[in-house]
From TrEMBL:
This is Late competence protein ComER. Belongs to the pyrroline-5-carboxylate reductase family. InterPro entries: 6-PGluconate_DH-like_C_sf (IPR008927), NAD(P)-bd_dom_sf (IPR036291), P5C_Rdtase_cat_N (IPR028939), P5CR-like_CS (IPR053790), P5CR_dimer (IPR029036), Pyrroline-COOH_reductase (IPR000304). It comes from Salipaludibacillus neizhouensis. Keywords: NADP. GO terms for biological process: L-proline biosynthetic process.
Length: 281
């Protein structure tokens, strides 16, 4: 088994580490971590005692073949630059941030021809299921793609995506759980404000409904549209509720995607500027 390095052990970095260990795809002894501060990797090491913590990027590159970069978007360019001196063609770089394109990562790592893949996870991958988004760089061979796909499939259901849909696909796969949680909490608030149900009971029913809902889709009893039709009896209560949703939701999600695209463009602009500044003599 290859040694897998993780630069950044924050929210998503630690989630990915835990998911791979839970899936038994990466043994603890093959997990190597590097973080700006020691608190987070030490906390993970308390739970997974056979993991290794490194002090600098050169140590990590020496001991690992595949490297996950789990840092914030504005830190990604500098981290890639710091790897250039000791990186080799035996390494594969796996970025998890949407604003940085794979071809840009490849360009930063030149003159070495380093395979780069972008893997955008979702919090639901901790259940060893749910979507992840994958974009392979030009240096990834068929062998690389097969091995990486197998690894990603151990904790998720990977979906190949192209750059133009990166942000919207991430909104659905990665931001979607937060958006849905917000809407469900609003539904519970409405229920408790307008009826005699208490919050604890409403929350318990809602969580069980969502688990069953996901399992129903998993077992392919219905798709989204046929499920809605099956529940909606003509002249029934569900139809009345759906009419309220149709009237009230309106362009809400159009506005949501416009705002996330706007933020994405701003993040892209900053990364492009960082790359340009480093390329200028």
């Amino acid at each position: 088994m290859k040694n897998i390095g993780f630069i950044g052990t924050g929210s998503m970095g630690s989630l990915i580490i835990e998911a791979f260990i839970k899936a038994k795809y990466i043994p603890q002894k093959n997990v190597h971590m590097l973080n700006r501060t020691m608190e987070k990797p030490l906390k993970l090491q308390e739970k997974y005692k056979k993991t290794t913590i490194h002090q600098n990027v050169n140590e990590l590159l020496r001991d690992c073949e595949w490297i996950f970069l789990c840092v914030k978007p504005h830190e990604m360019v500098a981290v890639l630059e710091s790897m250039k001196e000791n990186i080799t063609t035996n390494h594969i770089i796996i970025t998890i941030t949407s604003p940085l394109q794979v071809e840009e990562s490849e360009r930063i790592l030149q003159p070495s021809s380093i395979p780069v893949v972008r893997f955008i996870p979702s919090i639901v991958n901790l259940s060893l299921d749910g979507p992840s988004l994958v974009t392979f760089g030009s240096q990834c061979t068929k062998k690389h793609r097969k091995e990486l796909w197998e690894m990603f499939s151990s904790i998720s259901r990977p979906q190949l995506i192209t750059p133009p849909i990166t942000r919207v696909a991430s909104d659905i796969a990665s931001c979607g759980p937060a958006f849905l949680s917000f809407l469900l909490m609003k539904m519970i608030k409405g229920a408790t404000d307008e009826t005699e149900i208490d919050e604890e009971t409403a929350l318990k029913i809602m969580e069980r409904m969502i688990i069953g809902y996901g399992e129903t889709l998993r077992q392919q009893h219905f798709d989204l549209e046929t499920l809605k039709k099956r529940v909606t009896v003509p002249g029934g209560v569900t139809g009345v509720g759906l009419k309220v949703l149709e009237d009230e939701v309106g362009m809400m999600f159009h506005h949501l995607f416009r705002e996330t695209e706007k933020k994405y463009r701003e993040d892209r602009r900053k990364i492009v500027e960082q790359i340009k500044d480093r390329e200028e003599p």
